[in-house]
Amino acid sequence: MTPETDSRTRILAAARSMFHARSYADVGIQEICESASVQKGSFYHFFPSKRDLALAVIENMAGDWAHGFIAEAFDENLPPLVRLEYVIDAAYYWQNAAKDIAGRMPGCLFGNLALEISTRDEVMRAKLNAVFDQARDKFRTALEEAAASGAIAPLDAEATATAMLAYLEGVILLAKTRNDPEVILKLGPAIKTLRIELKQ
Hints:
This protein is 73% helix and 0% strand. The chain is mainly α. The chain is elongated, with a radius of gyration of 19 Å.
């Protein structure tokens, strides 16, 4: 890794951690630079603005999310309905581990940012929406496979997948509000009962 690449990586890591633990609005460029051990000139070399940094953080976290948490939970080698159980378990262990480190649940970075800035910044809203669409598609694929195998009755897979994603995000938000990851384990299994019927 070159010094330049290393500086950019440190800025991204610092911002990602701070945005997740606190909020986008609450974190300043100066403290990101201090945490990353870089000068402001280096910051602006990579990111013209804090907004550009936030977009890069979303992209960076989305890559980790897609190839880590989501890929693990929605492993195509698992039966489709088992994937729905795994996504709840994965969400719980992810949030519980974070609480063990920081003393409080951080919630979902994408959900946090969506609540904070999606009504004020169309570009960031679209970026976050793309991340949620990617997760929704994993739910939809699992539902389509389950219906094709006869494990569940035919249903509106896309609408149900969207409802399941909304439910998961809502459960994580409630657990964050209570600072209690156990809420995810208690409420999460109900995700499998969500069904939106096909319109006749």
